[in-house]
Structures are given as C-alpha cells and as structure tokens.
Amino acid sequence: VRVMSNRLTESQNRIIADLHDKNVQLQTAYDALQAAQAQVIAQETLARELRLAHDLQMGMLPQTRPLVPGYSFGAQIVPARAVGGDLFDFVPLCPQAVGLGIGDVAEKGMPAALFMAQALALLRAEAA
C-alpha cells in the first residue's frame, strides 16, 4: 500500500508540475496575444488618423476652379503617402485676374503636410 501510495503521489506531483508548466506556457501565449492585439489596435488607430489627415488636407485645397475668360484650369494632387507637401491655390485678384499658387514641400509625410498647411495659410493671408 505504501509503494502504491508513493507512486500515486509521484504521479500526482508530475501531473501537477506538467499542468504548472502548461499554465506558464498558456500565460506566455496569452500575454503575446494581448501585445499583438494592442499593436493591431494602435496600427488601426494610426491608419484612421492618417485617413482623417488626408481628408483634412484635401479639404484645404480649392474644391472649384476659377472661371476666367480664355483660360481653363485643372489641378490634381496625389500624395506619395497618406499626406504630403504638395499644394495649389487659386487666388482671386480682381474680376478678370486670378493668382495661381503652386508648391511642393521637400520631404513627405506629416511634417511636409504641416508645412504645406502653414504655407497655404500664409499664401491666402498675403493674397488677402
């Protein structure tokens, strides 16, 4: 009976140790899954913010073209990234004259987009 009792105790101890090891492995996998989920959420948030920044930047640009007899205007900006530093503007100077502003900020991405917004605001302020 003692020998069987010792064997059962040893078997239970091995099972408990095995379950403990598996529990540690599961906790490690769970922690890694939580970290990956947090990273995915952060990436989705960044992507959403970049889409918003893109929409805001495109909204700052003229949505209509001026009507000047004898001239036809067209413009299109396609940033290399979600946002960029390209800009254009049509500035009415008088009923028959329009100023045209075109710019390309060096670099790409958010710093160029912020500089573009500042340059566009300065251009409009000076034109006024």
Q: Would you summarize the structure shown here?
A:
With 128 residues, the chain is an alpha+beta fold. The protein is built from 2 helices and 2 strands.
Strand content: 5-15%
How many strands appear in the DSSP assignment? 2
Low-confidence stretches: none
Structural class: alpha+beta
Instruction: State the distance separating the first and last CA atoms.
Output: 102 Å
Determine the mean pLDDT. 90
- The ordered string of helix (H) and strand (E) elements is HEEH
> Helix amount, in percent?
55-70%
Biggest β-sheet strands, sense, barrel = 2 strands, antiparallel
Descriptive notes:
- With 128 residues, this protein is α+β, with helices and mostly antiparallel strands.
- It is built from two helices and two strands; from the N terminus they run H-E-E-H.
- It has a two-stranded antiparallel sheet.
- Strand 1 (86-94) and strand 2 (97-104) form a beta hairpin.
- The chain is rod-shaped and about 110 Å long.
- The model has no long low-confidence stretch (mean pLDDT 90).
